[in-house]
Amino acid sequence: SNIYYEITEKLRDRNDIASQSVLNQLKSENVAIVNEAQQNPRNLAKWLYENQGEMRFGSENRLFLVLIDTNDFSSSWKLKRNLDLLTPTINTFLDAFSSKQISDLKMNFNYPGKPQTFSALTDVIFVVK
């Protein structure tokens, strides 16, 4: 968000021990969240389904591509153009995909305001720099 960006930039600009300590703590907490998501990708996939915008709601099968730049989390979106990083990660995922069981890909989820339970096949690819 803009506020997060502004605060972290001001901390970087101050460049003192206290500011660096806060930035290091933020990075450590972000890395812990990434590790948790990688260890439990189904939780992330369910959260992504259940928290999609109402206008974009859909229960279609999805393959989520999650991009993470651990050096600058706010610039993770820039990794979408880094084919040298994307290609081997995606190819490794695709090479191993045939060994996955359909039952492991099935996800049931609920959506706020809709009474039924939805079902989809889903998986997550993490691209981490």
Brief overview:
With 129 residues, this protein is α+β, with helices and mostly antiparallel strands. It has helices at residues 2-14, 17-39, 41-50, 83-97, 102-105; strands spanning 62-68, 106-111, 114-128.
Fold and architecture overview:
The chain has five helices and three strands; from the N terminus they run H-H-H-E-H-H-E-E. The protein has helices spanning about 1-15, 15-40, 40-50, 85-95, 100-105; strands spanning about 60-70, 105-110, 115-129. The chain has a three-stranded mixed sheet. The chain starts with a helix and ends with a strand. The mean pLDDT is about 90.
Summarize this structure as a short list of keywords or feature phrases:
single chain, 129 residues, alpha+beta
Instruction: Provide a count of the helices.
Output: 5
Largest β sheet strand count, sense and barrel closure: 3 strands, mixed
- Rounded to the nearest angstrom, the radius of gyration is 18 Å
How many domains make up the 3D coordinates?
1
Outline the fold blueprint.
Elements: H1 2-14, H2 17-39, H3 41-50, E1 62-68, H4 83-97, H5 102-105, E2 106-111, E3 114-128
Parallel strand pairs: 1-3
Antiparallel strand pairs: 2-3
Helix pairs in contact: 1-2, 2-3
